[in-house]
Specification:
The complex is a heterodimer of chains A (276) and B (377). Chain A has twelve helices and ten strands. By secondary structure, chain A is an alpha/beta fold. In chain A, strand 1 (46-50), helix 3 and strand 2 (65-68) form a beta-alpha-beta unit. Chain A has helices at 4-7, 25-38, 58-61, 74-84, 96-102, 104-113, 158-165, 178-190, 216-226, 230-233, 238-241, 258-275, and strands at 46-50, 65-68, 89-95, 117-123, 126-127, 133-134, 169-174, 195-200, 227-229, 245-252. In chain A, the strands form two sheets. In chain A, strands 2-1-3-4-8-7-10-9 form an eight-stranded mixed β-sheet, with helices on both faces. In chain A, helix 2 crosses helix 8, helix 5 packs across helix 6 and helix 6 packs across helix 7 (158-165). Chain B has 377 residues and is an alpha/beta fold. In chain B, strands 3-2-4-5-7-6-13 form a seven-stranded mixed β-sheet, sandwiched between helices. A five-stranded mixed β-sheet of chain B has the order 10-12-11-14-15, sandwiched between helices. A two-stranded antiparallel ribbon of chain B has the order 1-8. The chains are: A alpha/beta (276), B alpha/beta (377). Strand 2 (65-68) of chain A pairs parallel with strand 9 (227-229) of chain B, so a sheet runs across the interface.
């Protein structure tokens, strides 16, 4: 049984969960809830929204305000909720296909608006739930059920995308780097504005077994051995960074948040109405 | 009676929404519906409401559904191409039982079609567009006054049945201007969604009241911790694969409309008493039909008009009664012949059914309909 402070964020009656043996999502899920607890949040003030995919089943297990939407649309639903109830601490949990393919447009625009939402992407490089199809983050050359000869497309760097789109906090960790991941999630939750944490997760079932990483332990070792801190990566060449996972914080800045701007706009509109 | 105004149909929709208590609008620019967004971008901030222009049509309805789940009366507006994109989340709102109003100001289709011209091609899409085949409610205004009144009614029905409601307008009705007398606030009936009586600890988000099969609705951020999903779910809102629970939900999603069916019949009719030929028309075409009726009566033809105002559920019973008393029904419409299929199904051979279609995006004229009357009378 989890500790009581963690258990208050869980719908314990629903366990065991649906995740496969060796899936990294549970590690990230636990870190998210530890972050809620560490920051003193109550379930009533937490709103978790997801799209479709393995990661998107996480909110169902969380005792809070939770919403499981359509594929790619978590951030769009979350935008409506945050505007309607600005006091809620809104988090979206998405997968790589969910966020970067079908939901890519909502992702860049939520970041551009700088609405106070923490977007977490569990990136396992593959469409797990539908059977191992290649995703926008599948590494070039890796195999998937729709890339039997190796994936010929380029891999999407979601952190670079988030920085370019204007996110005020951007970080990447892996499910191997647990304390770093938890600290990034906490910083993201505390940030006013659009924050983004990409967590590289493991999928031995769909990605690993097609890419010579059949076991959960092998996948963890792969994360450990291939991760490079951002500070070190800055001194490495593109060739040296080939196939590496750069972890660290890519953006951390202050900018006025969207719902605050909207609140000011309303005050101005009401003032204008009164002066007429 | 209140203020007299000279409004465009799209403005009447926007102001009707304000009257109904809309507090959230999310939309994407599209002709011929954009005025609704433009007007609400000015009006909503004044009443403490929220306007947001989203990145696309899908995001617009998603944000509106999210805001509705967080307790606000919400809407979006669009036209054909955007309506196609919204079908995904219309299905979500049906499944998750979220009140939301979707305005579709129809233009010519398919695809980009004729953006600035009227058409009635979304008659079937409004009812059948999203996958799964479950019902939703569709209203059809044919005047500026109705744009105002039916927008209010769309919100009332959405809130009552916990369902998406489509206001199926068209380019003529949306862009024409008419003088209307606005009702006093006290004359307008507003229905707000049922809130739960249960405490947060005992609340089951999808436990329906037995009398109407509609579950009371809590809002996010008000102390109730509950789950909402587009998956088939049990009374707790949690996903299920149990065939019994799946069937129970699916049957209830049908039954709530069956139980409330008396609220879902709305039509107007003219001169049916002695009619031998009845014109069945909706939206802008019903206006031409009215003109045709007057001319035909002058010439001695016994013509009536039946205009469904709630298009879906389709008014089967009233139409069956008419069909058993008349020689012929004429269905003029600006599409490839869509409503006529539904009329033929309902009439079931009780009388002749004649289709009159026009596909050049010019409005069907009273003269055209009159010619058809002469032909079939």
């Amino acid at each position: 049984m989890p500790r009581e402070n963690i258990a208050r964020f869980l719908r314990l009656g629903l366990f065991p969960h649906i995740f496969c043996a060796g899936c990294g999502h549970g590690i990230a899920f636990h870190a998210l809830i530890r972050a809620f607890d560490a920051l003193g949040y109550n379930p009533e003030e937490v709103m978790v929204v997801s799209g479709i995919g393995c990661s998107s089943r996480i909110p169902g297990y969380i005792n809070a305000n939770t919403l499981h939407t359509t594929h790619g649309r978590a951030l769009a639903f979350a935008t409506g909720i945050k505007l309607a109830k600005p006091h809620l601490r809104v988090v979206t949990v998405m997968g790589d296909g969910d966020c970067a393919a079908i939901g890519g447009n909502h992702f860049i625009h939520a970041a551009r608006r700088n609405i106070d939402i923490t977007a977490i992407v569990l990136n396992n490089y593959i469409y797990g739930m539908t059977g191992g199809q290649a995703s926008p983050t599948t590494p070039h050359g890796a195999r998937g059920s729709t890339a039997p000869y190796g994936f010929i497309e380029r891999q999407f760097d979601l952190c670079n995308l988030a920085v370019a789109a204007g996110a005020v906090y951007v970080a990447r960790a892996t499910v191997f780097h647990i304390s770093q991941m938890e600290s990034f999630i906490k910083k993201a939750l505390q940030k006013r504005g659009f924050s983004f944490v990409e967590i590289i997760s493991t999928c031995p079932t769909q990605f690993g077994r097609r890419n010579r990483l059949r076991g959960a332990v092998e996948m963890m070792e792969w994360l450990k051995n291939n991760s490079v801190p951002l500070s070190k990566a800055k001194e490495m060449s593109d060739e040296e960074l080939e196939g590496k996972i750069v972890i660290g914080e890519f953006a951390d800045k202050e900018m006025i948040e969207y719902t605050e701007l909207y609140h000011s706009l309303c005050k101005a509109a009401i003032g204008e109405g009164m002066s007429k | 009676m209140g203020r007299v105004v000279f409004w465009q149909g799209n403005r009447a929709v926007a102001m009707g929404a304000i009257m109904a208590g809309v507090k959230f609008y999310a939309g994407y620019p599209i002709t011929p519906s954009s005025e609704i967004a433009e007007i609400l971008s000015a009006e909503l901030p004044k009443v403490g409401g929220i306007f947001i222009q989203m990145e696309d049509e899908i995001g617009s309805i998603a944000a509106a559904i999210g805001a509705s789940l967080a307790g606000l009366k919400s809407m979006t507006a669009t036209s054909g191409p955007g309506f196609s994109l919204k079908q995904e989340n219309i299905g979500f709102a049906i499944m998750a039982e979220v009140p939301v109003v979707i305005v579709d100001v129809q233009r010519g289709g398919p695809s980009t079609g004729t953006p600035t011209k009227p058409f009635q091609g979304d008659f079937m899409q409004a009812r059948w567009g999203t996958h799964g085949g479950f019902p939703l409610v569709v209203l059809s205004p044919s005047s500026v006054k109705e744009c105002f009144e039916l927008t209010i009614e769309a919100f009332n029905l959405a809130e009552r049945f916990r369902t998406p409601v489509v206001l199926l307008s068209d380019e003529v009705v949306g862009h024409m201007r008419e003088r209307i007398e606005l009702p006093e606030d006290s004359e307008v009936k507003i229905y707000n969604r049922k809130r739960p009586k249960a405490s947060p600890l005992n609340y089951k988000p999808y436990e329906a009241d037995p009398e109407d099969d509609i579950p009371p609705m809590a809002a996010y951020g008000e102390g109730y911790c509950f789950h909402v999903t587009g998956l088939v779910h049990n009374e707790y809102g949690l996903p299920t694969n149990d065939p019994k629970e799946i069937e129970a939900l699916n049957l209830r999603l049908l039954r709530k409309f069956e139980k409330g069916k008396d609220l879902l019949v709305k039509f107007s009719s003219f001169e049916l008493e002695d009619a031998e030929v009845v014109i069945v028309a909706f939206g802008c075409v019903a206006r031409s039909a009215m003109g045709a009726l007057r001319e035909a009566r002058k010439l001695g033809y016994k013509v009536g008009l039946f205009r469904p105002v709630i298009l879906w559920p389709f008014p089967e019973e009233p139409l069956k009664k008419i069909a058993s008393k008349v020689k012929a029904i004429i269905v003029p419409e600006m599409n490839p012949g869509l409503m006529v299929r539904e009329v033929e199904r309902v009439v079931g051979g009780r009388c002749e059914v004649h289709s009159l279609i026009r596909l050049d995006t010019e409005i069907i004229t009273p003269e055209q309909i009159l010619e058809k009357v002469k032909e079939v009378a």
